[in-house]
Sequence to fold (204 residues):
Amino acid sequence: MTKAKFNTGLGLNFKVQDITKISLLSAIAFVLMVFAEFPLPLFPSFLKIDLSDVPALIGGFAMGPVTGVIIEFIKNLLHFLFKSETGGVGNLANFVVGIGFVVPASVVYSVNKTKKGALIGMAVGTVTMTLLASLANYYVLIPLYAKVYSMDAILNMMSQANKAIVDLKTYIVYAVIPFNVIKAVLVSIITLLIYKKVSPILHR
Fold:
């Protein structure tokens, strides 16, 4: 009996089981994005830690980096449709930063599927994500936020959280870089703790 497959048009064929797994991981990521986010002291209130990259990273490890990208896209699309309060800017930021972490980590792990490979991949992903988040915030995301609100209002919000933040450059140094490192470490630790337990299910 032949198992049904779907051609994505990108040279990738997904079985029905794969689509089911991606849908489940995307739904979990969306729920985590909505209900499991929390702020950190000394960071602006719009920077919130959420663990929604965990399902995307697990999917990327188990099924390849493209799967991780799809999960990141679906969870942000759902969040944009049902929960977004930033006109989509926050979702764009989450998607860009998320794939900046998930894709490099998944690519490295696909070459070396060991615990060491996972650690190296997540370390590479942390550096890539932090660099990408810094560039995206400085050149794209904060300017977009400024169009929705105003640059003065955004800088005021930043400085209320951390007096050391007085402009975009200090925002990158004192907020974006440490925030993304903390987030990547948390996601990495949780993924390491649960991946081996859930991977047999995803490889069936």
